[in-house]
Structures are given as C-alpha cells and as structure tokens.
C-alpha cells in the first residue's frame, strides 16, 4: 500500500494551503477553498473521498469538540486536531460560502481526483502518491506512528476487518473517540518517548489475510515477535533472512517480578539498574540477561510502589507484539 512519509505529507499539506490562498478573485478563492476543505477532511480525518464529498457542513461538523460526523454504512465520529478544525471552520463560515452552506463539499468526484493529482509536480512526488486514497492511508500510518493502538486506528478509518490476534482488545466507540482525542490534543506520550531498540534478522514470517507475525532474532540471541499489517509486509518487503530493526516505546513495556510465559508475548528477564520516581509517573531501566540490551519502562508511580522494585532487583519485562514497530536499518 502506498504511503507518504511524514515529510512528504507535510510538504503536500503546505502546498494545498498555499494554493488555496493564491487567488485574488472571490469566485476562484471560493472554488479552491471547497477543494481545500475536502483535502483537510481526508488529510486529518482519514475520510474516504466519497465520505468527504457527502459531508453537510451545517450538520456534520461539531466545532467545540473538533468532531466530524461521517454518515453511510460505515458511519462514525472522528476528532481532528484543533488547528485543522479551525481551518475547516474558517472555510465554511467565510462570507463567500453563504449560498453554498450545507453543500460546500458537494463536488464531482472525478474533478476532485484530477485536482489532487495536479499537486504531484509542485511537490516533486509521483502522481500516485498524492491521490485521496494515499493521503487517507498516510493519515492512518501517521496515527499508528503516534502510538495510537491499531484497533483504534481501524475505527478511525472505518475499517471492518478485525486484526486476527489473541488477546485483541475491543474498544467501544466512546472509548475510541476519547483515546483518539486524547492523543491528538495532548500528545502526552511525548514526555515518555524513550525507545527500546532491537536489531536482527527475520527468522520466521507467518502471514494471514490481514496481519502477519514476524519473529526477529537479534545478534545476542533474543527472539522478538512483532505483529504488523499485510500492507507493512509489502511496504517493507519483508522476507526471512532480512535485516530489520524493532523498536518499542517505554509506555508499552510492562514490568513484573513473576511473569508466566505466554504465546506471542515478548518476555525477557534482567536486573533493574535504574529507578526514577516521579509524582505521577516513574521510569525503570532493566538490563536484559545476556542480551547486551537495556529496556526502559514507563509506569505509574502507584504501580511501581506495588511492585516494590529497587535497583539491583530481578524483574521481568514484557510487551505485546502489537507494541513493537519494524523498520529498515537505513530508516
């Protein structure tokens, strides 16, 4: 599946905004604003083109909560960043749009696609990378990179296919909106973005219809299991024997004094080398036995107190295969 890198996505977004501001005449500005509105809904709401074109700007935008209400068979509510919603509101409430209210986004699908593809040249990108579907998928990838769970991103995108994995957590629609809103507004995990890295080769690759399980064997002899989408398998060109890197952010690394082995869960034992207590959150660093690898965990201070871990104690660290992210060494 084609996707834009964060840098190219930013470049495309800036190009659209600059293009929309170029015209001096009201009629041309109105026309470009309507197209820009559709782009913003796809860029930040990950809407399908048909969903964006069906929006009623009088009913489907909730300004106070930054929510877009999507209708149809895959109806859902999507929350977008405040800055994006402010741009959408400015377009909808501009005097030039008064006579179009309720139907600002109602444009011909073929015409809109043509306009999307015209941005390939100015952005120095391939034509196939600037279409509505690629922008939508790139938003989904962006959310995953920001640590939003795969199941939440599926709800955000309105996808029906479940990820086939044991222990898959099901979120209610209310939980999904709350979690997405929390991540978009606060980006709270930036405070605890310590990354734990493994390098090794793919020693097992099991693919299904929707997802794939990848076993990565490090040079130190550790085995790391990662669950990825089929699209990621294709994008990375995964194959046995390939050299890859796997990373997992500290908030997804869990600790326990005793942890029974469970299929698919990454579990390692080691010695606590550092404990940093905070009022609300704390961090614990564990040197993994014989692996020459250090793992950092972020957890609540209450949880740390319950574990009673101190420097020099033995501990188990574990994380879900969902929590790890694969990348090519050059990335």
Structure description:
- This protein has 331 residues and is α+β, with helices and mostly antiparallel strands.
- The chain has 2 domains: 181 residues, Intergrase catalytic core (hpI Integrase, Chain A); 137 residues, RNA polymerase II/Efflux pump adaptor protein, barrel-sandwich hybrid domain (OB fold (Dihydrolipoamide Acetyltransferase, E2P), Beta Barrel).
- Helix content is 35%, strand content 25%.
- The chain contains 11 helices and 13 strands.
- The strands form 3 sheets. Strands 6-5-4-7-13 form a 5-stranded antiparallel sheet. It has a 5-stranded antiparallel sheet with strand order 8-12-9-10-11. Strands 1-2-3 form a 3-stranded antiparallel sheet.
- Helix 1 runs antiparallel to helix 2, helix 2 crosses helix 7 and helix 8 packs across helix 9.
- The radius of gyration is 23 Å and the shape is elongated.
- The two termini are 18 Å apart.
List strands and helices in order, with pairings.
Layout: H1 6-21, H2 26-45, H3 49-53, E1 61-62, E2 67-70, E3 76-79, H4 82-92, H5 109-117, H6 120-123, H7 132-145, H8 150-157, H9 173-186, E4 195-207, E5 211-218, E6 223-229, H10 230-236, E7 243-249, E8 254-256, E9 266-276, E10 281-288, E11 294-300, H11 301-307, E12 314-319, E13 325-327
Antiparallel strand pairs: 1-2, 2-3, 4-5, 4-7, 5-6, 7-13, 8-12, 9-10, 9-12, 10-11
Helix pairs in contact: 1-2, 2-4, 2-7, 7-8, 8-9
């Amino acid at each position: 599946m084609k996707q834009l890198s964060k840098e190219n996505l930013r470049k495309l977004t800036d190009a659209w905004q600059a293009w929309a501001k170029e015209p001096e005449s009201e009629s041309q500005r109105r026309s470009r604003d309507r197209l820009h509105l559709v782009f913003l809904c796809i860029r930040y709401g990950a809407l399908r083109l048909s969903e964006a074109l069906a929006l009623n700007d009088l009913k489907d935008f909730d300004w106070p909560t930054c929510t877009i209400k999507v209708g149809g068979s895959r109806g859902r509510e999507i929350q977008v960043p405040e800055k994006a919603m402010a741009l959408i509101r400015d377009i909808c409430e501009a005097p030039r749009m008064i006579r179009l209210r309720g139907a600002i986004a109602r444009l011909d699908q073929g015409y809109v696609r043509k306009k999307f593809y015209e941005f390939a040249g100015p952005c120095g990108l391939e034509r196939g990378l600037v279409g509505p579907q690629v922008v939508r998928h790139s938003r989904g990838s962006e959310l995953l990179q920001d640590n939003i769970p795969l199941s939440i991103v599926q709800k955000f995108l309105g996808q029906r296919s479940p990820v086939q994995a044991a222990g898959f957590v099901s979120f209610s629609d209310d939980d999904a909106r709350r979690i997405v809103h929390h991540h978009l507004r606060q980006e709270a995990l930036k405070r605890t973005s310590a990354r734990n890295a493994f390098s090794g080769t793919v020693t097992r690759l099991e693919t299904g219809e929707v997802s794939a399980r990848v076993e990565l064997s490090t040079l130190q002899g550790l085995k790391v299991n990662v669950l990825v989408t089929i699209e990621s398998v294709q994008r990375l060109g995964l194959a046995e024997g390939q050299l890859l890197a796997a990373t997992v952010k500290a908030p997804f690394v869990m600790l326990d004094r005793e942890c029974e082995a469970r299929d698919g869960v990454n579990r390692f034992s080691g010695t606590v080398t550092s404990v940093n207590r905070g009022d609300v959150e704390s961090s614990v660093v564990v040197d993994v036995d014989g692996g020459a690898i250090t793992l950092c965990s972020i957890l609540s201070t209450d949880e740390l107190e319950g574990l009673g871990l101190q420097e020099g104690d033995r501990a188990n660290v574990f994380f879900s295969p969902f929590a790890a992210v694969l990348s090519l060494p050059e990335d």
